[in-house]
Specification:
Helix content is 36%, strand content 23%. With 143 residues, the chain is of the alpha+beta class.
Length: 143
């Protein structure tokens, strides 16, 4: 089958292609690709945002709920691990502190993060009297 050059142009034009020698430098083909890339980017941001809400570390509220009055230091260490800070109060009681930064992901973004929400740190204060738990306090500090 032998086609004339103008017949080839018509066939290509009906298939959505352009004849040889003429190009738009990919502008028309980029329109759909840009929209797709933008959509994928926005979906990625949404997934990233949702993942930032899930923490691999358990919140200290759970740890505070399993510490009971009367438990020994060893029992507390076995349940929640080593404390972040140890001190003694004016009554001579030993106080253990556990800290966890629960600041949202977007708050940690450089320069603009300060505009979104507050920095949040949760803490547990465990007070020991004669090596046994006498008091457990859970609190969240916002700055």
């Amino acid at each position: 089958m032998h086609l004339r050059p103008d017949a080839t142009f018509q066939i290509l034009a009906t298939n959505g292609c352009e004849p040889r020698g003429h190009t738009d430098f990919g502008y028309n083909s980029m329109k759909g690709t840009s929209k797709t890339n933008l959509l994928l980017f926005l979906i990625g941001l949404l997934v990233l945002n949702l993942c930032s809400c899930a923490s691999k570390e358990p919140h200290l509220a759970i740890d505070a709920s399993i510490i009971s009055k009367g438990q020994t230091k060893l029992e507390v260490k076995n349940l929640v691990g080593e404390p972040d800070y140890i001190t003694h109060n004016e009554k001579g009681e030993e106080e253990w502190y556990y800290y966890n930064d629960i600041t949202p992901f977007w708050r940690r973004i450089w320069l603009v993060g300060r505009l979104f929400g507050k920095k949040r740190i949760e803490a547990i204060q465990v007070t020991f009297y004669h090596d046994h738990v006498s008091k457990v306090i859970y609190y969240v500090s916002e700055k």
